[in-house]
Design goal:
CATH architecture: 3-Layer(aba) Sandwich
Structural class: alpha/beta
Shape: globular
CATH topology: Rossmann fold
Order of helices and strands: EHEHEHEHEHEHHHEE
CATH class: Alpha Beta
């Protein structure tokens, strides 16, 4: 069973549908677009899996305990008391030039991209199954510089560091933690600039290894093995590597994939070319 934050649209929606295709029940969250979330639930059910949609504002950490209780209620109706996969997908894009950043814009980016991820994960850890998986979503803007993205990229850098520490500290429970940054993808994120604006799309396509912008469905993790829980009866060892990471090897887009396997003594990383532009939220 998987929980995908902001799973009502874009990459979150694509991930939810891929999970369903891989045989996983899915709960998606939404901030305000209830109808979009309901449509995802319907699509997952058509795919033969159970689904639910829950409202969640990831900037409101005071609501997380109540959200966890509601999530447990849903799990109970499915005769579960834990879930297997957490996909921290919720995001907001607010480009802010250096020297012109307001405290309000700064706090929004911090709350969505770091504080919300940190405290939601912490709140849900007691009901995340041993041997489960956590997926965080960073950005290529931590590796190259783009104008107006200093705060956004800084928060994503924090997420990458947090991912490493999660991987280390949750290793004893057999929980794998990955940070997966998709390449340029044609979604409605940022007002659909990559999807609809050729002036934005063309230069990004030129920087992509395959010379084109990807579609959400081809960028979402798709391997059935990706979403398989690690066997609780199989203790980790240096001679027994963990299951495959959640990167999609058939994706149209280049991607940065920070593979942080909690069951190894030291995290390992693999990186390829990545670029991202976005200007609004994924909720």
């Amino acid at each position: 069973m998987a929980l995908v934050t902001s799973g009502n649209r874009g990459l979150g929606r694509a991930a939810a549908l891929k999970l369903a295709e891989a045989g996983t029940d899915v709960i998606v969250t939404y901030r305000s677009n209830k109808d979009e979330a309901a449509a995802v639930v319907d699509a997952v059910i058509v795919a033969g899996r159970r689904a639910a949609a829950l409202e969640l504002d990831t900037t409101r950490i005071d609501t997380f305990p109540a959200f966890a209780a509601t999530l447990q209620d849903v799990l109970g109706t499915w005769e579960r008391d834990t879930f297997d996969f957490l996909v921290n997908n919720a995001g907001v894009a607010a480009p802010v030039p250096v020297g012109e950043t307001t405290a309000e814009a700064f706090d929004l980016l911090v709350n969505v991209h770091f504080k919300g991820v940190f405290f939601l994960t912490q709140t849900l850890l007691p009901i995340l199954a041993d041997g489960g998986r956590i997926i965080n979503v960073p950005t290529g803007l931590t590796r190259f510089v783009g104008e107006d993205w200093s705060v956004y990229a800084s928060m994503k850098t924090a997420i990458e560091t947090y991912t490493k520490y999660l991987a280390k500290e949750l290793g004893g429970r057999g929980i794998t933690v990955d940070a997966v940054a998709p390449g340029p993808v044609a979604t409605d994120f940022g007002g659909g600039a990559i999807r609809d604006n050729e002036q934005v799309r063309a230069p990004l396509s030129g920087q992509a290894a395959l010379g084109r912008v990807a579609e959400p469905r081809t960028s979402a993790p798709s391997s059935r093995r990706c979403w398989r829980r690690a066997p609780a009866s199989s203790p980790p060892s240096a001679s027994k590597p963990p299951a495959a990471p959640c990167c999609n090897p058939t994706s149209q887009a280049p991607h940065t994939c920070i593979i942080l396997e909690s069951r190894l003594a030291a995290p390992r990383t693999r990186e390829t070319n990545h670029h991202e532009q976005a200007r609004t939220d994924r909720s």
